Amino acid sequence: MNPLLEQSEHLLALKVEGVSVKADLQSNSTRISLPMHENKSKPATLAPDETLDDVIRYEVKEIGTHVLVCEVNYVTLAGIAQYFRKFFKFQVLKPLDVTTKFYNAEMDEIYLEAQIQNITTGPFCLEKVELDSSEQYTVTALNTLPNGESVFTSKNMLQPKNSCQFLYCIKPKPEIAKDINLLRMANNVGKLDIVWRSNLGEKGRLQTSPLQRLPFEYKDVRLEIIEALNIVKIGEPFTFLCRITNTTDRPMDLIVKLPTVLDFNCPYTGSTEFCLGPVDPTQQKEFPLTIFPTKLGLIKVSPLIFINTLKQEQYTIAKVVNVFVVDDDYHEDEAFQMNKFVRYDSASKPQYEDQSLQLQVV
């Protein structure tokens, strides 16, 4: 028998000792050591045809080029430590495109519109889209119907290039809302947490960076309407509760004026003027105002004027409150028909597709 063949067969029958595998994931900015063989405390010994396997799970958080570096260490028959490496290069593509829009509303409310677009080549199913609020805010999702059902389909399937919108109402916590200085500094509202599955069942997760709201722009005084009806009957008193805040670092002595114009086109009556009194820096005062609507439909109550007698300064609030005025036989139930209070200019049956309708409240 050939001696070289015998020597080769002898070497193939030997075990390889001191075998260990190490894996690193390298991106454009970082290099991370990935956990492998966590249940093995010592290097392995491999018999002929025996393998050492492991499954690596890691959540990739960067897009771009990644390199998986695998290093195998072992000990030769002569007791010399050796190693070799292999490199696996792959691209991490952006699966979603997330755009956000902020809207500042009254009473310190913020509305966040989040649009999610599928920019992959295949469909996927959205399992969760939530806004995790920061410590300064509370979040209410506005993506369900009054009966509790989602406004989307049960599967939330997004085809390639398709998108959907989610809406959230964000409110500062009471201890933040009552302090103007804290409210101005509370810019971080939270993060969007998105979970989806591909058409093959592969799970993906994306969390945005902290979302920064638009800054609240307060002048020297800040007006809030803290209590008001949405619908009132014509001729009946409409009372709404206001709160004024001194956002400056100096005291004020305020006079409140709600002027009305003696004109046929004026939608309400109820001119008033009174002394509100002193308001210290960052302090608040509440007061009611009452008007009498004289026209049907949506009316706007404005302007409201504050005069600081200490500095002879005047502040005009252009947008105060809106209210919908109905006739005196209006009643809130399912049988109420708004068409009873609306007259079409055209006597023919309305054509919604071919022409626009002009509505007139009668």
CATH architecture of the largest domain: Sandwich
- The SS-based structural class is mainly beta
Indicate the overall shape. elongated
CATH topology of the largest domain, what is it called? Immunoglobulin-like
**Percentage of residues in helical conformation:** under 10%
Beta strands, count: 27
Largest sheet properties = 5 strands, antiparallel
Q: Write the element-wise H/E pattern from the N-terminal end onward.
A: HEEEEEEEEEEEHHEEEEEEEEEEEEEEEE
Termini gap? 114 Å
CATH class of the largest domain: Mainly Beta
Rg: 34 Å
The number of helical elements comes to 3
Walk me through the structure.
The chain is mainly beta and about 350 residues long. It folds into 3 domains: about 15-90, no CATH class; about 95-210, Immunoglobulin-like (Sandwich); about 220-325, Immunoglobulin-like, CATH 2.60.40.10. Helix content is about 5%, strand content about 50%. It is built from 3 helices and 27 strands. It has helices spanning about 5-10, 175, 180-185, and strands at about 15-25, 30-35, 45, 65-75, 80-90, 95-105, 110-120, 125-135, 135-140, 155-160, 165-170, 190-200, 205, 210, 220-225, 230-235, 240-245, 250-260, 270, 270-280, 285-295, 295-300, 305-310, 315, 320-325, 340-345, 360. The strands form 7 sheets. Strands 1, 2, 3, 4 and 5 form a 5-stranded antiparallel β-sheet that branches. A hairpin with a 4-residue loop joins strand 1 and strand 2 (about 30-35). The longest helix has 10 residues, at about 5-10. It is elongated. The termini are far apart. The model is unreliable at about 5-10 and about 340-360 (pLDDT under 50). InterPro entries: TRAPPC13, TRAPPC13_C, TRAPPC13_M, TRAPPC13_N. Pfam families: TRAPPC13_C (PF23643), TRAPPC13_M (PF23647), TRAPPC13_N (PF06159).
